[in-house]
Automatic annotation (TrEMBL):
Any one cellular-component term (Gene Ontology): plasma membrane
Alphabetized SUPFAM superfamilies for the sequence: Multidrug efflux transporter AcrB pore domain, PN1, PN2, PC1 and PC2 subdomains
Record PANTHER family: CATION EFFLUX SYSTEM PROTEIN, PTHR32063
Keyword field: Membrane, Transmembrane, Transmembrane helix
Keyword Transmembrane: yes
Superkingdom classification of source: Eukaryota
TM regions (residue ranges): 109-128
GO MF terms held by the record: xenobiotic transmembrane transporter activity
Keyword Plastid among record annotations: no
Protein name: Uncharacterized protein
Species per Swiss-Prot/TrEMBL record: Hemiselmis andersenii (Cryptophyte alga)
């Protein structure tokens, strides 16, 4: 809620306008006084570089309560489908792979947990005689 889903939704935003000569207030739409279109910022507000080349960066965020591992798998499938349709010379690259980092962290945690349990059991058996 609160996010615009189309340029038309943004154009329909009501704005309060006051006529400076009469002082009478009225309501107009943003689209009545501005041209609204979907486009890239030119010049871009931020320049992103990857491996020394200027790139276009896209951020993919997980929905609240989502499964990061499942999202990573779905993103890999979607990326492969998109890559097939890209024009020559255009490539997709992944700068950061959070699902992989989460999988690695969980794996390391489980490994350390197993080591801790084994050590506690070994010390317990040794102390019992």
């Amino acid at each position: 809620q609160g996010q615009f889903t189309s340029t038309q939704a943004l154009a329909d935003v009501p704005i309060r306008a006051v006529n400076p000569q009469t002082g009478v207030a009225s309501q107009i739409k943003l689209g009545d006084i501005a041209s609204i279109k979907r486009a890239y910022a030119d010049p871009p507000a931020t320049t992103v570089r990857f491996q020394g080349k200027e790139v276009l960066a896209l951020g993919v965020s997980m929905a609240k309560g989502g499964d990061i591992i499942a999202m990573g798998k779905a993103l890999a499938v979607a990326t492969q489908a998109i890559e097939r349709d890209l024009p020559a010379g255009i490539q997709l690259g992944q700068i950061q792979d959070q699902p992989k980092a989460v999988t690695t962290s969980v794996g390391e945690f489980v490994h350390v947990l197993i080591e801790a349990v084994v050590i506690v059991l070994a010390v317990s058996f040794l102390s019992l005689g």
